[in-house]
Amino acid sequence: MTSTLQEGILVGCGNPLLDISAVVPLNFLQKYSMNEDDAILAEDRHMPIYGELVEGYQAEFLAGGSVQNSLRIAQWILRQPRVAVFFGCVGEDRYAGILKEKAQAAGLDVHYQVKRDVPTGTCAVLITGTHRSLCANLAAANNFTIDHLEEPSNKALVDNAQYYYISGFFLTVNPPSIMQVAATAHAKQRPFLMNLSAPFISQFYMAPLLAALPYVDIIFGNEAEAQAFAEAQQWPSGDLREIGKRLVAMEKKNPARPRIAILTQGCDPVLLIQQDSVQEFPVTKLAVHEIVDTNGAGDAFVGGFLSQFVQGKSLDVCIRCGNYAAGHIIKNPGCTYSGEPEFVE
Ligand code: AP5
Ligand code: NA
């Protein structure tokens, strides 16, 4: 980092979740009718998962939650604390303490809404070989309300930021908060970034996603998420480039700043789609022995991207830093890093 950035230049909203991660046999997934690469919300029948992981599978506890992951990674790369502000809802318990401690250690400025009688959210990360299946029990995270953003000190943080990032996951929690942040970004002509987050968002939360999309300047997603969006829109082609072009062409509030789509595809090149152009950014493939787990790769990609975007760097630099950050996180358990960042423009 060369110059000092404004504190709180980046504001994010999401679900603060503690990940409970363990290697499990396939029949564990089968027992809960889950697939190897799912990302789902827990229903009543999934509730025993968390206890079982802790009691029988030597589960590890890791700070998670998609947006908080991305912001932690951005902070790590920036090496300047409090560039990013995070809003989300937690309970008043030990898990909330762990999340806050990890976030603050990374330099993140967290402003949790606290709900006394609800436990902090957790996400089961079920690892089977190179696959991971996620089952999020949002709990307190689901109780986020817009009045938290309307508290004067929090409102000031939102008003003073220059960049805004919210996950698609947050659409299941509080669309009015998303629309308020989006409207602020729009009124101040500041970039508003979102993520498709998981196929189930397009499948079941398309209405609030479509309401927010006109405000979105940059939309992130992976292959499966882009395909799910296209299917939900009944678009004829499953080709990622075509999907990207249609995504950027959808209605936009501020046509002077055309929408950009950034689609990741694992170890295949990242696609940058702007109006009619599609550019590819190669990914440095990791050797099998270097891979610990890919959990958090997509979130880390966004974190690396944001760390450069808030410095006004070109999209080319932002995407290369996204790939750098994702590659680093893959060599570490969950969405964690080790040592000092080594990204060079
Ligand atoms: P998870 O879905 O595991 O994390 P992710 O960040 O989305 O990572 P993925 O591994 O799914 O990556 P991707 O498919 O998005 O990206 P891609 O493979 O294209 O979820 C993690 C977190 O989600 C958890 O902490 C959990 O708490 C949270 N969560 C779950 N449910 C939630 C909810 N309801 N609300 C909030 N949070 C929730 O890869 C991206 C980039 O990685 C590539 O561009 C590349 O740079 C790199 N890369 C990928 N594969 C390779 C490779 N083999 N070699 C080199 N680089 C690679
Ligand atoms: Na990892």
Question: What can you tell me about this protein's structure?
Answer:
The strands form 2 sheets. The chain has a 9-stranded mixed sheet, with helices on both faces. Strands 3-8-7-2-4 form a 5-stranded mixed sheet. By secondary structure, it is α/β, with parallel strands linked by helices. It contains 13 helices and 14 strands. Helices cover 37% and strands 23% of the residues. The mean pLDDT is 96. The chain has a single domain, classed as UDP-N-acetylmuramoyl-L-alanine:D-glutamate ligase, CATH 3.40.1190.20. Helix 7 (175-187) links the parallel strand 9 and strand 10. The structure holds BIS(adenosine)-5'-pentaphosphate and sodium ion. Sodium ion binds at residues 292-293, 295-296, 329-330, 332-334. Residues 14-15, 17, 19, 39, 41, 64-66, 69, 123, 132, 134, 136, 167, 169, 222, 264-267, 270, 283, 285-286, 294-299, 301, 323, 326-327, 330, 335 line the site of BIS(adenosine)-5'-pentaphosphate (AP5). ATP dependent phosphorylation of adenosine and other related nucleoside analogs to monophosphate derivatives. GO terms for molecular function: adenosine kinase activity; ATP binding. Its EC number is 2.7.1.20. Keywords: ATP-binding, Kinase, Magnesium, Nucleotide-binding, Nucleus, Purine salvage, Transferase.
Shape category = globular
CATH topology: UDP-N-acetylmuramoyl-L-alanine:D-glutamate ligase
Query: What's the helical proportion of residues?
Result: 25-40%
- SSE class: alpha/beta
Cα-atom Rg, whole angstroms?
19 Å
Give the biggest beta sheet: 9 strands, mixed
Percentage of residues in strands? 15-25%
What's the architecture in CATH terms? 3-Layer(aba) Sandwich
CATH level 1 name: Alpha Beta
Query: How many β-strand runs?
Result: 14
Flag low-confidence runs: none
- Strand order across the largest sheet: 6-5-1-9-10-11-12-13-14
Number of helices: 13
Bound molecules: BIS(adenosine)-5'-pentaphosphate, sodium ion
Mean pLDDT over all positions: 96
Within CATH, the superfamily carries the name Ribokinase
Instruction: Indicate how many domains the architecture comprises.
Output: 1
Tell me the series of helices and strands, N- to C-terminal. EEHEHEHEHEEEHHEHEHHEHHEEEHH
Pfam family, one: PfkB
Family: Belongs to the carbohydrate kinase PfkB family.
Organism: Drosophila simulans (Fruit fly)
Protein name: Adenosine kinase
